[in-house]
């Protein structure tokens, strides 16, 4: 059985190929953070809903005098949103997340006390 498997190698020669393993450098932690935070913002803003439903960016309503006024929040629909409404809600969630990140950084042991108070009260 072994001689049957070795038979083609008597006629054919295996080429000597020098294959290098490609080097891969990882992105910096800040680049990863920005990518994750941007995707967090887009998901919380309802970008998936906006792509599927294609709502208007902002609405309008007519007041009692007949003037047309812009409306940022969709009224009388629980499951609907304008694009600007989703972006503003996503921005508020991201501001809250940044607040928690700053609070976590202010709790570091190597940070001077003066800077800790500056982080906390900002």
Structure overview:
- Helix content is 53%, strand content 7%.
- The chain has six helices and two strands, in the order ααααββαα.
- It has helices at 2-6, 8-11, 29-44, 47-53, 83-106, 113-121, and strands spanning 59-62, 68-71.
- A two-stranded antiparallel sheet has the order 1-2.
- Strand 1 (59-62) and strand 2 (68-71) form a beta hairpin.
- Helix 3 (29-44) runs antiparallel to helix 5 (83-106) and helix 5 packs antiparallel against helix 6.
- The longest helix has 24 residues, at 83-106.
- The chain is flat, with a radius of gyration of 29 Å.
- It starts with a helix and ends with a helix.
- The mean pLDDT is 89.
In short, what is this structure?
The protein is mainly alpha-helical and 122 residues long.
Catalogue the unreliable spans.
Answer: none
The structural class is: mainly alpha
Spatial gap, N to C terminus: 78 Å
Outline type: flat
Average pLDDT confidence is 89
Q: Tally the beta strands.
A: 2
How many helical elements?
Answer: 6
What percent of the residues sit in helical stretches (DSSP H or I)?
Answer: 40-55%
Q: Give the SSE order as H and E letters.
A: HHHHEEHH
Beta content comes to: 5-15%
Largest sheet: 2 strands, antiparallel
Widest β-sheet, arrangement of strands: 1-2
